[in-house]
Amino acid sequence: MPIFNPNTFEFISRSPAQTSRIGIRLGKLLLAEDLICLSGDLGAGKTTLVQGIAKGWGTIDLATSPTFVLINNYRRPGGLEMNHLDAYRLENAIEAEELDIEYYLSRGPLLVEWAERISRALPEENLWISMFWQGEQQRRLVISPHGKRYQKLFDKLKDLTFKGF
User: From CA 150, how far away is CA 112, in angstroms rounded?
Assistant: First the structure.
């Protein structure tokens, strides 16, 4: 069995700024109805990555963690929107279904922090990013595409990342 899975991209970020930069690259690639699932413990850098994604996507709003409001909405010129769901406070996938995930996907890209808590309520096709705390400044990101659209997104992100760092 090979050490590297060709459908997994592992990236070591050495600073919050670097985590944000990979997010910016990803954000520039997002289309309406794209689903980005983020998993990882507290302090793994999910919100830092989301801030980069939102910036790269072109929002005019400050991206913040929606832990207490569940969903933040970010806009960009032209009326497009991105939604950011924090599933930490949800008990299960049934509660997530009540939020109408499909509605938020129809409005633009959807970013889901703590996606593992509600994975059964999410579409099977997505870009999944698992994040791990490796040290005070260092984080490990493991990125996996699920579905044709996300394979293309994954390939473009790999190209941008290896060319840009």
Answer: 15
